[in-house]
Amino acid sequence: MPSTSSLLLRLSLGGTLLLTAAACDKDNNESDDPAQVNFTQAGLYPEGTQYDDDNDRFLVSSQTAGRIGQVKDDGTYSQFADDAQLVSTIGLKLDQAGGRNRLLAAVSDPGYNTSRTSTTTQRKLAAVAIFNATSGAKTGYVDLGALRPNASAHFANDIAVDDAGNAYVTDSFAPIIYKIDAQGGATVFLENSALAAAAGSFGLNGIVYHPGGYLLVAKSDEGALIKVPLANPSGFTKVTTSGLTLTGDDGLQLTDNNTLLVVCNAQGQVYRLRSTDNFGSVSQTGSFATGAVYPTTLARRDGQSYVLYSYLNALQRMQSPAVSQFSLVRVAF
Q1: Phi, psi of 140 (to 5 degrees)
Q2: Domain ranges of the chain
Q3: Which of 177, 224, 277, 322 has the fewest Cβ atoms nearer than 10 Å?
Q4: Closest of 37, 75, 44 to residue 329, by C-alpha
Q5: Could you tell me the CATH superfamily of domain 48-330?
Q6: How far is it, in rounded angstroms, from Cα 285 to Cα 54?
Q7: How far apart are CA 314 and CA 27, in angstroms?
Q8: Which residues, including other chains, have CB under 8 Å from residue 96's CB and lie 6 or more apart?
């Protein structure tokens, strides 16, 4: 029969092993991460989101208020950043690599922020505002529409950042992708009439940078995916999507070098696509139905993806009363 001290040692070791196993299981399953975060802010209508691991918060934009908010897991919403130049904030990109510690926000004017819209900016504004990702202080503002002042309309929509800190910004109302270098210098990276959409329609939309040296871009009006090489942007090609219906594709997210999530808002779906040929083509490997909540884009948190329920369809039809509760929902395939 084992001694009392020996038995206690075994029990202690066994308990340690059980606790270690439980901790590992928690880490693997990320059980501490909520399945859904709901937050209340009447008429906010967020379009973009990012997850800030350093501060345990989601960041969300607003088409109606312009300000950028932060959302905690308990649903608490508070202001992260605001400025008079933020007419409507659309896509967000948190860029903390290389010590940059910044948040980039696409700024447009669809006319929903009645306190900041004007005849000179409505449907003509394409800009990017840059903030310190910790404090929310504005550190820069780049007017992209000024690069093409004669275009009939502009709408800065989404942002991707490459390894060197260059930002790429889609214009949904003009067939343009802009580039902002790490020093804040702006140029037209790609402009081609083949990327245009009909007047009033959204063309170029979500955008992501692939470490293989190219961009993947959603073109909402035709449900297409465009592959744009950084070294030769004019050599862009359409990704083959045979058998897939991606109409209304909006936010994009790479979960690894061969897997792309695509949010199709009008469909109320998030699709998981897989490529085996460096995104020459893709096939569907999963889908997640959101319902009629007009999902727009995704935030990545602890290896999991959260989709934003924006209810922008209610804003577009001027629903009264305005939607007051919005959600970030963990995607499960």
Answers
A1: -170, 160
A2: 48-330
A3: 277
A4: 37
A5: TolB, C-terminal domain (2.120.10.30)
A6: 32
A7: 38
A8: 54, 102, 133
Residue 88 and residue 118 in contact, taking contact as beta carbons nearer than 8 Å? no
pLDDT, tens only, 132-176: 999 999 999 999 999 999 999 999 999 999 999 999 999 999 999
Task: Tokens for 250, please give them.
Answer: 């909006």
Question: Which tokens sit at 329?
Answer: 């929902």
Average pLDDT over residues 70-74: 98
What does residue 178 show for φ and ψ, rounded to 5 degrees? -95, 160
Element (H, E) at 234: none
Q: Which amino acid is at 162?
A: D
Contact 61, 91 (CB under 8 A): yes
The residues near 25 (Cβ < 8 Å, ≥ 6 apart) are 31
Largest CA distance in the chain: 91
* Mean pLDDT computed over 106-117: 97
Which residue type does 274 have? R
Distance of CA 227 to the CA centre of its chain: 18
Going by the DSSP 8-state scheme, the letter that residue 147 receives in this structure is: G
Q: What are the backbone angles phi and psi of residue 293, rounded to the nearest 5°? A: -115, 5
For CA atoms 301, 129, 224, 258, the dihedral sign is negative
Q: Which two tokens stand for residue 184?
A: 């804040």
